[in-house]
Design a protein that fits this description.
Elements: H1 2-13, E1 20-21, H2 39-51, H3 54-61, H4 63-71, H5 81-96, H6 99-113, E2 116-117, E3 122-123, E4 133-135, H7 142-152, H8 156-172, E5 182-185, E6 192-196, H9 208-225, H10 228-243, H11 268-283, H12 287-307, E7 323-326, E8 331-337, H13 338-351
Antiparallel strand pairs: 1-8, 2-3, 4-5, 5-6, 7-8
Helix pairs in contact: 2-3, 2-5, 2-13, 4-5, 5-6, 5-7, 7-8, 7-9, 8-9, 9-10, 9-11, 11-12, 11-13
């Protein structure tokens, strides 16, 4: 079904830079420095790698060049360059040996390394006045730095990535495995100031997509470093995530949104991202220990496939329905989100033997 859907998406989406598809099922077209601009080409690269069909490669090929061109103009690139260049330049280089992909990927890694605050040991989030803010989403962008360290044999990138990963373990992931979205530090001294709810329901809430970022991101950090601290952090978040899933295994947007959680919107994108991370986590553990995580991932993917997908809506450009972007601001609630589609395709590809890693 995914291959058939991918072919129709290729025709429907074309060279758009999609983020959200609302009730009409038509994906929007965002600027190229928007944080989601890498996910559609990332899907195309996975489909190419799994099928060998040149149409997918041809459609994905020019995206890293578009991002580089935007870098040379006035732009709003920030902590999310990993989300943009890992699924474009770097996977392009890995699959084809393209020298420009390598160069552009290293350019992005240098950009991300430049956002590191040494005093607080964190990667700065966003731009403008958010000088001391860091967010759990950046757990996923650390793979850009780990990759750069391996590619150049320059450990500076790894040192920065590990420092931020340590900060995630210490200040973002709570003892029970729930996760904070935003943590504010004094940018001068590095002192921890407070947690901020961000896209979660509040400072003490448990935003489900933030948990997915942390679960997956810490598993990645373990894969690159072999440091068991990151593996156990990923497991702690995974245990919380799984324990708080509803009966159909697809999470609500926040595990602590209200006393009436059953009435809150779901977030299929959080489920897809968590499922992909759980599959990686399972592969890093002994078979018996990892089975609980693989089984949980499979249950989520089956439910997403059977209950949350647009298979019977041929004019709908997305795969997954019922995703939540930013519930506190009322933005993109009960929509389709391109990163939900991406992680669903990625997770299903892993189940079907795909061995390459983008994140």
């Amino acid at each position: 079904m995914i291959v058939q859907k991918g072919e129709s998406m290729l025709q429907q989406i074309g060279d758009k830079s999609p983020h959200a598809a609302k009730a009409d099922g038509i994906y929007d077209d965002m600027r190229h420095d928007w944080w989601t601009s890498g996910f559609w080409p990332g899907m195309l690269w996975i489909l190419y790698d799994m099928t060998g069909k040149e149409a997918y490669k041809n459609a994905a090929w020019g995206w890293d060049e578009k991002l580089e061109a935007k870098m040379m103009q006035e732009n709003n690139f920030h902590h999310d360059v990993g989300f943009q260049f890992l699924p474009t330049a770097i996977i392009k280089h890995k699959l084809t040996g393209d020298a420009d992909g390598l160069r552009r990927g290293l350019f992005a890694a240098n950009f991300l390394a430049g956002r590191f605050n040494m005093a607080g040991r964190f990667l700065r989030a966003w731009n403008q006045d958010k000088v001391g803010w860091s967010i759990v989403d950046s757990s996923m962008n650390l793979s850009l730095l780990f990759w750069a360290a391996e590619t150049t044999n320059d450990p500076r990138f790894k040192h920065i990535a590990r420092a931020h990963a340590d900060t995630v373990v210490e200040h973002f992931i709570r003892a029970d495995g729930s996760v904070k979205h935003i943590v504010s530090f004094d940018p001068e001294t590095g002192e921890l100031l407070c947690a901020i709810g961000g896209q979660g329901a509040g400072p003490d809430s448990a935003w489900s997509r933030g948990a997915a970022w942390a679960l997956y991101g810490m598993a990645n950090s373990y894969r690159y470093t072999g440091d068991e601290k990151y593996l156990r952090a990923s497991q702690r978040v995974a245990n919380f995530f799984i324990a708080n899933l509803p009966s159909d295994h697809v999470p609500h947007w926040d595990f602590r949104a209200s006393e009436h959680r059953a009435e809150e919107p779901r977030d299929s994108s959080a489920g897809a991202c968590a499922a992909s991370g759980l599959l990686d986590l399972a592969s890093m553990l002994p078979v018996a220990e990892g089975k609980v995580y693989r089984d949980a991932a499979e249950r989520m993917l089956i439910s997403l496939h059977e209950n949350y997908a647009a298979w019977d809506l041929p004019n709908h450009e997305a795969i997954l329905l019922q995703a939540t972007g930013n519930r506190p601001s009322g933005t993109n609630v009960n929509v389709s989100l391109i990163y939900g589609d991406y992680y669903f395709v990625e997770a299903v590809a892993k189940l079907n033997g795909w061995k390459n890693h983008i994140f």
